[in-house]
Specification:
By secondary structure, the chain is α+β, with helices and mostly antiparallel strands. The chain has one domain. Strand 2 and strand 3 form a beta hairpin. It is globular. It starts with a helix and ends with a strand.
């Protein structure tokens, strides 16, 4: 379901937006590997992908194997594009509205129990994000990765449902604007009901990572399920996007309910 793909995408944005938004649009290409894991009796195989992200002052476009996502902070919406079907779906960035919309659009195929389960999962997701505590520690080690001089950081995130620990190697070789980054993350978080409080402290912690993350190894343990993900920045450059790049492409129609 689109709503849950978007929840996963929102988590991915935490890494993609970790490099602060620049004064010009930024193009990034990143390789991601996730080890296989088992959750609720279902085994997920290892997964490898190469994703690209364009970031502007108040907008993001991400190309992933799951699809294309356009985030418009100015409109408070996320567009999900299906290139094969030439269709798009429009989702509110408000988590409550997103879930209500998903149930309205797809509720005819759900049992009352399924609707109740989705609502419960949404509440759990909101609680997980709103009560997350982030700490960042700068370490003395340095190394060169993909030609960029990097410093090591340890980022810990604690939530009621588990913990996430990331070893991050970040470079200051790439130009950045930490104030604009802070404004972006604050705007993203403030759109979720009940999530604004405490965001300022989290942003200040994340600003301790000086520069752009080049490589990270993230180990999460949520509700007893352990997952390990490795991410590596392959390309990073400032570019002018094609005209209308953050808009719904011509010829696309809104997906029918």
């Amino acid at each position: 379901m689109v709503a849950w793909r978007l929840l996963s995408f929102s988590c991915a944005l935490l890494f993609f937006s970790a490099p602060s938004i620049l004064l010009a649009d930024v193009f990034m290409k990143q390789r991601t590997h996730t080890d296989g894991f088992t959750v609720m009796g279902q085994t997920q195989p290892p997964r490898d992908s190469v994703d690209t992200v364009w970031m502007g002052k108040d907008r993001i476009r991400s190309e992933t194997p799951e699809g294309t996502y356009i985030v418009r902070l100015d409109r408070k919406v996320i567009y999900v594009l299906d290139a094969e079907a030439k269709t798009y779906e429009e989702m509110s960035m408000n988590l409550n509205s997103m879930i209500d919309q998903a149930i309205e659009e797809h509720g005819g195929d759900m049992s009352p129990e399924q609707k109740a389960m989705i609502s419960q999962m949404a509440r759990m997701a909101k609680e997980m994000v709103s009560t997350a505590e982030i700490t960042v520690q700068e370490m003395p080690e340095t190394r060169t990765i993909n030609g960029w001089k990097c410093r090591r950081y340890i980022q810990n995130t604690s939530m009621p449902m588990g913990t996430v620990t990331s070893e991050i190697w970040a470079t200051s070789d790439l130009r950045m604007d930490t104030d604009l980054y802070a404004a972006f993350r604050s705007a993203m978080q403030a759109m979720q009901p009940g999530m604004k409080e405490g965001m300022s402290a989290s942003v200040e912690e994340l600003k301790k990572i000086k520069g752009v993350p080049v490589q990270s190894v993230t180990k999460s343990n949520v509700m007893g399920t352990g997952v390990s993900t490795t991410q590596e920045l392959l390309e990073y450059k400032e570019m002018i996007p094609p005209a209308g790049f953050y808009e719904i492409p011509a010829g696309y129609r809104k997906a029918s309910r």
